[in-house]
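Figure 6 in text form: structure in, sequence out.
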């Protein structure tokens, strides 16, 4: 399996997905937009993973590589290649498919619950309620044909699926190490708010919480790729 990762900032890698992909014997390549925006031929890819970042999908004037990145994602979707988007990555999928991405009414940073929404028989099923890691200030309208998979009190569209494409507004791949990295680089965003935890609260999260969301990320990867185990 050939996997291509779209990485937007150095401190937001694929986290726990690395071990899942290694267990599948996957060949993983990267476009690291903070270094080089070159993209590979889409025909050579079996799975696209679009990661997060502090920028907006609407920043095309300042970040011109966003346009070819969205085209790359659109091409993957049209060719039936599995695509998984995380946070900014989910917003990129939505934007690539013609949906609006805009500021959410509340920033959501920290560990907050999501609630599964009724889906279809062939869509991914989240637990009825689970607590996951969030770090986002924007949201999106669901793309045409998408099925909403989850919502939260702060954000109506937390996850969606279109065929072999899944977008997650939240982070299931986060490990203790990657959480420290985002705190070190984006800690200035932790201003008081109803859905923003403090740095002290975030640094006290137990390893078991990370293990649980990482397990769930493995299930998402299995679903989108059709690979079990």
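Output sequence:
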């Amino acid at each position: 399996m050939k996997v291509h990762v779209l990485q937007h900032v150095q401190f937001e890698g694929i986290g726990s997905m690395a071990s899942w992909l290694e267990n599948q014997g996957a060949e993983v390549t990267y476009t690291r937009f903070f270094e080089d925006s070159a993209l590979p031929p889409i025909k050579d890819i079996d799975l696209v993973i679009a990661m997060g970042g502090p920028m907006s999908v609407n920043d095309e004037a300042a970040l011109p590589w966003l346009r070819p990145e969205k085209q790359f994602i659109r091409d993957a979707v049209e060719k039936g290649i599995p695509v998984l988007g995380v946070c900014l990555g989910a917003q990129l999928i939505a934007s690539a498919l013609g949906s609006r991405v805009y500021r959410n009414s509340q920033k959501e940073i920290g560990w907050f619950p999501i609630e599964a929404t009724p889906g279809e028989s062939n869509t991914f099923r989240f637990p009825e309620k689970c607590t996951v890691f969030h770090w986002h200030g924007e949201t999106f309208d669901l793309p045409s044909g998408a099925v909403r998979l989850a919502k939260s009190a702060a954000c109506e569209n937390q996850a969606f699926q279109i065929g072999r494409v899944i977008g997650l507004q939240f982070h299931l791949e986060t490990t203790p190490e990657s959480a420290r990295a985002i705190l070190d680089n984006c800690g200035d965003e932790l201003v008081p708010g109803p859905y923003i935890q403090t740095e002290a609260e975030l640094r006290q999260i137990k390893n078991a919480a990370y293990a649980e969301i990482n397990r769930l990320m493995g299930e998402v990867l299995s679903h989108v790729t059709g690979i079990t185990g």
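Caption detail: The mean pLDDT is 96.
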